[in-house]
């Protein structure tokens, strides 16, 4: 049964997609309805997969990876919008299309995207020993970004008030499940498989160094000039103006940038503008409990 845990708010009469569960993880209903095909997706050994929790720097990473593969050729990276260049495998939107169909029609080598937690990843990616790039973002900023994204994106449930959303996020009752489980699951898997695990905050602090790391992982040897060019073209201000990367090509009936832009701030520490003192204390306590069994370290602000 499809459910929508928050009231359907409409800004133009378009109903929001409903959600349901796949193995305990909330997903938009079209994803649930196609789950067997998604689970049985056939990866190829030369596929490159970008995996993230939603709003952890996914589009940024996609743009960086595409520019690395095209050795800094800006024109090539502007050949089509992000979601066409790099199919989102579990995403099915009646009016926009199916990432699964796109991926199946795409010639090799393919670069693909997912937000799935490791336990829901189609097994063929691991069986084929695909290269996977995982990007994690500190949960406070991730929560704020996801909240604003759900406000503007009709393909996800309405987030409710900030106070309500804070509770939903802590409980893992958001699409793609618990942030804590997601980052920990992929972290645990990184030493068994070809997974490059990166942090959003490192990308912000030292983009050139992290882009170099990505290039090496992908198998590209890029000189300083090309790296600098990629740093510039994947900076927040440039990407925000790039119609092939800022999701302005998606119909406003689905993504309404006047509610909140898809590319909103792209900073570290914006959570301080949202969290109350009490919320911050509660979050920290919850975080310590849930992250006690892992050695991942996150930066919540830059000193």
SSE layout and pairing:
Elements: E1 19-22, E2 25-28, H1 29-33, H2 35-39, E3 48-52, H3 58-69, H4 74-77, H5 82-85, E4 92-93, E5 97-98, H6 99-105, E6 111-114, H7 124-127, E7 131-136, H8 139-152, H9 162-170, H10 179-189, E8 195-199, H11 200-205, H12 207-218, H13 224-233, H14 236-240, H15 277-290
Parallel strand pairs: 3-6, 3-7, 7-8
Antiparallel strand pairs: 1-2, 4-5
Helix pairs in contact: 3-12, 12-13
Summarize the structure.
InterPro entries: P-loop_NTPase (IPR027417), Sulfotransferase_dom (IPR000863). With about 300 residues, the chain is of the alpha/beta class.
Q: Classify the beta-strand content into a percent band.
A: 5-15%
**How do the SSEs run, as a string of H and E?**
EEHHEHHHEEHEHEHHHEHHHHH
CATH homologous superfamily, by name?
Answer: P-loop containing nucleotide triphosphate hydrolases
Task: Determine the mean pLDDT.
Answer: 87
Structural class: alpha/beta
Which of globular, elongated, flat, extended, rod-shaped describes the shape? globular
Q: Count every beta strand, where a strand is a DSSP E run of 2 or more residues.
A: 8
Helix content: 40-55%
Strand order of the largest sheet: 6-3-7-8
Q: In angstroms, what is the radius of gyration?
A: 18 Å
Indicate the CATH topology: Rossmann fold
Please write the CATH class name: Alpha Beta
Quaternary structure: single chain
Number of helices: 15
**Main pleated-sheet profile:** 4 strands, parallel
Distance between the termini: 47 Å
Low-confidence stretches: 1-12
| CATH architectural arrangement | 3-Layer(aba) Sandwich
Integer count of domains: 1
Protein name: Sulfotransferase
Domain Sulfotransferase: 46-294
Family: Belongs to the sulfotransferase 1 family.
EC number: 2.8.2.-
């Amino acid at each position: 049964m499809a459910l929508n845990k928050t009231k359907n708010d409409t800004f133009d009469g378009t109903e929001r997609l409903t959600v349901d569960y796949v193995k305990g993880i909330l997903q938009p209903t079209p994803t649930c309805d196609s789950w067997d095909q998604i689970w049985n997706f056939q990866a190829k050994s030369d596929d490159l997969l970008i995996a993230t929790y939603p709003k952890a720097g996914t589009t940024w990473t996609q743009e960086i990876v595409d520019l690395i593969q095209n050795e800094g050729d800006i024109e090539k990276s502007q050949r089509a919008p992000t979601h066409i260049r790099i199919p989102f495998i579990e995403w099915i939107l009646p009016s926009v299309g199916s990432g699964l169909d796109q991926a199946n029609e795409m010639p090799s080598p393919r670069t693909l995207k997912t937000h799935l937690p490791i336990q829901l990843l189609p097994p063929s990616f691991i069986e084929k020993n695909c290269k996977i790039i995982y990007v994690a973002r500190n949960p406070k900023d991730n929560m704020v970004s996801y909240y604003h994204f759900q406000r503007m994106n009709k393909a996800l449930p309405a987030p409710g008030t900030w106070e309500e959303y804070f509770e939903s996020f802590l409980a893992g009752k958001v699409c793609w499940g618990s942030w804590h489980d997601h980052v920990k699951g992929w972290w645990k898997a990184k030493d068994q498989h070809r997974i490059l695990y990166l942090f959003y905050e490192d990308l912000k602090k030292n983009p050139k160094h992290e882009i170099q790391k990505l290039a090496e992982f992908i198998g590209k040897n890029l000189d300083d000039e090309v790296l600098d060019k990629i740093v510039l073209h994947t900076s927040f201000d440039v990407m925000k103006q790039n119609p092939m990367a800022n999701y302005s090509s998606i119909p406003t009936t689905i993504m309404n940038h006047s509610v909140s832009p898809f590319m909103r701030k792209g900073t570290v520490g914006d959570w301080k503008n949202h969290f109350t003192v009490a919320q911050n204390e509660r979050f920290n306590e919850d975080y310590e409990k849930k992250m006690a069994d892992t050695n991942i370290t996150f930066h919540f602000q830059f000193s």
